Amino acid sequence: MWTTExxxxxxxxxxxxALGQEITTLRLENGQLASENxxxxxxxxxxxxxxxELAAEVRGLKVRLDRAQSVSTTGFNxxxxxxxxxxxxxxxDTVPVRVFxxxxxxxxxxxxxxxxxxxxxxxYQDTLVQVVYRGERERPWLWIxxxxxxxxxxxxxxxxxxxxxxxxxxxxx
Length: 173
Prior knowledge:
The chain is of the alpha+beta class. 20% of the residues lie in helices and 49% in strands.
């Protein structure tokens, strides 16, 4: 009984430390950037206590927390500078319109300027790749007797995208 309580305490303590860690950014062999951090291992009650907003989000998806295997969240932002040429057009022979469009592999922006108004149609598509794996050992000096940490690596295909937040939580039954 005492050892299980001690193990639970250590697991929750490590999860608290992992919550405060910054994510690590790596450059992959193909030149893309990937972000990496430690995976949290929590029971559903601990997840509710430590991260109530995330637990509420899972419940909002109509999934019971005790049935979930893992929860993953990732936040990213994209900044792509674009310069486009405005083309003059005329609608109904009296309304001057300036039209523009921009496309790359991820963004599509189409718009028109009528008078002092601009009408835009934006779309964005990207692919997020996530891998959860067993990384370095917790205590490398203990060699094979030390378990490996669960690590998460996340990458976006868009080179202009930057991952600023990622979290993966394994829910222990």
